[in-house]
Amino acid sequence: MEPLIPAGVWLEAPLHAEILLLVGVGLFSIAAITLLGGVWLKRTTRWWKRYGVSTPGRCVRIKERDEYTTYYVQYLDGAGRVHETHTQGSVIAMSLGAVVEVWVDPSNPANARIAAEVKLQHVVTLILAGVFGALAIVTFSLGLVFWVVS
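and the corresponding structure tokens:
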């Protein structure tokens, strides 16, 4: 009985298997970068919770664009001066006049963050890391299966 594949002939993986493997590696890279971003944002959240001074702020202006909405919030520092911070509505949404919690850097009152945004950013990035990681596992696994089967 003659073998199906002659001796010395190397079978190359089909192109779709290689593409799936490369896409899987790319998705894994995106997941790793997103995970690192989530860890960094978690550290930032810890810093603001530990050192930031909580103060109420009021949404005074909303600027809507096609891609995103920017919310401007005014707040008072410890000396009674008015400051303004803003956020793009990627994580939170608010209405004009809404009162929100603002974390103010006590050493630089002009530096402030909207508390809800800080609290949710790292959660969103960790969810995205999980989604990209799951897609990477599925895509890479399919690539391996196609590579081995063909």
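(Above: one complete record from the training split.) The mean pLDDT is 84.
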